[in-house]
Design brief:
By secondary structure, the protein is α/β, with parallel strands linked by helices. Helices cover about 45% and strands about 15% of the residues.
Length: about 250
């Protein structure tokens, strides 16, 4: 009798100002399906709020998560986490069985990034450093459960400028080209970070675009069921499991 391949461990990397708690829905669903799963906090976020955010520190946090899961993972990053997941996969292709880069299909420099940095500096000058705005936007733009999850790990109010500045030094197109494994560019249909989506796809050796219907930038929170269904299909493909009856993401 043939033995079913082991399920690939899944490492989840959050977006800027968020934390590992933003992945609660995905963690629960993946774990229920039998996948080892870990969501990490990047420096300056969540339980590591007081640590400075730098490129080496962010990549080291991912490497530590990979080691905790056993050394070869399906690496999933969204927004800020997506850019660092892409960079990590390029640097350590032997440790990444597959890559999901969500909400990060825009080159992180130029007018788009400088505009975000300027806005972040202005918000940081508010008396509460932008806490009320951060919480209000989460509650207005996300479903109640998504807002609770993203706010549960606290607001990384001091990381925006340093995080964006560090990310501007990355070269995601070159990193996508350097990673030989399968890549899924998962973007919300309404995500403004789809700006360079086709360029990102063209850089991949083995890539495909998956669009989450009705989702904005934080697609895992805005449309958690749809995003998680996509993630479960990708995990099954990377694990070499038979089709579960749903269409594989292309």
């Amino acid at each position: 009798m043939e033995t079913c391949p082991a399920r690939v461990p899944v490492l989840l990397v959050h977006g800027i100002r968020a934390s590992a708690t933003m992945w609660r829905f995905q963690e629960q669903s993946l774990r229920a399906a039998g996948y080892p799963v870990l969501a990490i906090d990047l420096p300056g976020h969540g339980q590591r709020m007081r640590e400075p955010f730098t490129v080496p520190a962010a990549l080291a946090a991912i490497d530590d998560g990979v080691a905790r899961l056993g050394g070869r993972v399906l690496l999933v990053g969204l927004s800020l986490g997506g850019y660092y997941a892409v960079t990590y996969a390029a640097n350590h292709p032997d440790r990444v069985a597959g890559l999901v880069a969500a909400g990060c299909s825009a080159v992180p420099r130029g007018v788009l990034l400088e505009g975000y940095r300027l806005l972040a500096r202005l918000i940081h000058r508010l008396p509460d450093r932008g806490l009320w705005l951060h919480e209000t936007m989460a509650r207005r733009l996300l479903p109640p459960a998504g807002a609770r999850d993203v706010l549960a790990g606290g607001a990384a109010l001091d990381v925006m400028d340093s995080g964006l500045r560090a990310t501007s030094t990355l070269a995601p197109l070159a990193s996508l080209a350097a990673y030989p494994g399968p890549i899924w560019l998962v973007n919300g249909a309404l995500d403004h970070f789809r700006l360079n989506e086709r360029r990102f796809l063209a850089a991949c050796h083995d890539g495909r675009i998956v669009v989450v219907p009705g989702a904005t930038h934080l697609s895992s929170l805005a449309q958690p069921e749809r995003f998680t269904a996509i993630l479960l299909r990708i995990a099954a493909l990377v694990s070499g499991h038979p089709s579960t009856g749903t269409t594989a993401p292309q």
